[in-house]
User: What shape does this take?
Amino acid sequence: MDYRTALLDTSRGRRAPPSRIVGRGRCEPIRGTIEVRSFLLFLALYGFWLILSGELKSNFLLVVGALGSLATVILCRRLSPMETPRSSPATAVRFILYLPWLLWQVTLANLDVIRRVWHPKLPIRPRLVRVPTRLSQPLALTLLANSITLTPGTVTVRVSKGELLVHALDDGPREHLLDGSMEKHIAALESEESR
Assistant: This one.
């Protein structure tokens, strides 16, 4: 049976018009996927809790860990968008390769901030910088904004369509933001073509 034939307009007892069909053109078994993902998330969180607590003999800690993991899974299910972007194994590999690059950028920025703080004249000129971006997917923009904020000396203040407003300590971080290297890495990560 086609999924559209099962959608009835209950107020009139007839089939709903095509304009009222939600998800028209796509029929995906999403329910099982969400339950499996939720169960795997619960297992990962609970396993992480057990590793960090290091205590398997205390019933209290076992129950608190299970309840905390369950509460987190429930909140994640309620807060996650209905349509999540699909990711491929290649995207996961690119993300894993992105993390060392980001860690290196954070390390370089840490050294730069340390140099500025220890310098007798404290060479900083704080400013707000408008950083143009060609990323359009919300996940890609969020990753770019968070990556900028994780880098010492810069904080993303606002994200808008086609632009980020970033607070930078000086021209060094500003130039690094405007060269677009971080955006290129994220565009490759998200398989999003830069315009």
Notes: The mean pLDDT is 79. The first helix runs from residue 30 to 53. The radius of gyration is 23 Å. The longest strand covers residues 154-160.
